[in-house]
Amino acid sequence: MKKSSANSSTIARSAGVIGIAVMCSRLLGLVREQVFAGMFGAGTAYDAFVVAFRIPNLLRDLFAEGALSAAFVTVFSDYNTNRSKEETWQLAANVLTFFAIALSIISLLGIWLAEPIVLLMAHEYSAVEGKIALTTGLTQIMMPFLIFISLAAVAMGILNSKGRFFIPAMASTFFNLGSIVGGVGLALILPEYGYPAITGMAVGTLIGGFLQLAIQLPSLKKIGFSFRPRLNISDPGLRRILKLMVPATVGLSAVQINIFINTKFASSCVEGSVSWLSYAFRLVQLPIGVFGVTFSIAMMPVLARHAAEKNIPEMRTTLVSSLVMVLALTVPATAGLILLSEPIVRLIFERYAFSAADTLATSQALALYAVGLFAYSSNKVLVPAFYALDKPKFPVIASFIAIGTNLIFINLTIDKYQHLAIALSTSVTMLLNFTFLMVVLYLKMDGLPLKYLVTGSLKIIASTVAMCAVVYYGKDMLLAYLHGSTIQQLLSLSGIIVSAALLYGILLNAMKLSELSNVVSKFIEKFRRKSKA
User: Fold this and answer.
1) Single pTM value for the model
2) 447: left (phi over 0), alpha (psi -120 to 50) or beta
3) Largest Cα–Cα distance of the chain, in whole Å?
4) Which of 37, 48, 73, 454 is the most interior residue, by most CB within 10 Å?
5) C-alpha distance from residue 261 to each of 42, 57, 251, 254 (Å)
6) What residues have CB less than 8 Å from 316, skipping those under 6 apart?
7) How does pLDDT run across 293-332, given as a tens digit for each residue?
């Protein structure tokens, strides 16, 4: 039991460091979306940008931060443990060189085939004059983003394998910073030369991608890596990475197919639907990134160690404890986003080109996305357990089940509910994925400590219900202020959220949820250390 407690503390400590960096990135990402909302609202220009960015981003998710990152970390960690330093750095240089060349070729093909790809993803855009041409041009500008972001993922893998988490997690903050500063600057200048303002934001995306890679280079140098171009296609380490990428790519392709399906359906809805969904999903990504992704990164080394030791009992305990941590943070976030979706969207986005009608449409989508928030975040914790158990086929199966569910659900509801059908379908598929993965893990690990999970979940649900009462009545009491000036909205919304969060924390603490105590104690310990320094 002491060992399990130590594991929970280790995960909580790592998650705290990563979480701070991810929080900075996601908050700056929200600022980026605010800039888009204020400058372009929800219409032709931003619709075009969303689809254009989605094309290199789909490839990024598929190859870079998914299959490539997971495969590279596995092989690099093995080299780092069992091979010489020279062999380890040669592998890193070979991988960087190979993928720089391969992704450059893919980017050139993407630029050449941009128009047919856009027509495939959003053929309905042809009904609006100039929209296909604008989307195609933006796609061609942003395709090289794939190169920068993929090499940044390899750099992150190297640093994480060496126990460096903060700088790689902060790197995406610099992506957002470059996108905002560079993009806005160019968006103000380029119209004078006959280019649409949204073109500046596309170039800003490239600047951000370059910065995400560049900010990690000094840290690579500090750990002893000095890049020298090296290409050896017959290198067994590179071949092993490529081989490992195949099943991961197949699994991730299912996710990308779902995104493709959702984009295609959204582009067939009323003007602005793609924008509303994009703004809403950006908001729901904040808790997903801070809670789900953070605990996934922190938990993976602990699970991998238990798997290597064939210590299944400790794996079970670590997994369920991590899951309770995620539920403790995402269940109240789910409830809060559903109840406060409209005032949140109004405060963050409603100004300049972003209208009250856009607020309503975006907040409705946000509430429906939030339904699946806890499941989406929990899946980020469950999937690494399958890789640690060397059973990656089950997340792949879950992803393909999700495609079928998504297609059926949207086809049945799109005509009546338009873009809201897509948001709800996303949540339904995430809930189905969560159920499937939990059942399979229970069977493959010969059971899980369900009593502990159920007890923790009941404490979380009870505290969340009480929290919801505070939110509901607070929202009713401060309704006029929630529709007032920006400062009135900020103060009233902050008051409701802080009051609800305090009550939730007090109730969970009274019910003695150990995972909450671990997280809080680590933050207090870190704060005390900084105060003494």
Assistant:
1) 0.70
2) left
3) 69
4) 48
5) 20, 15, 16, 11
6) 445, 447, 448, 449
7) 555 555 555 555 555 566 667 777 777 877 888 888 889 8
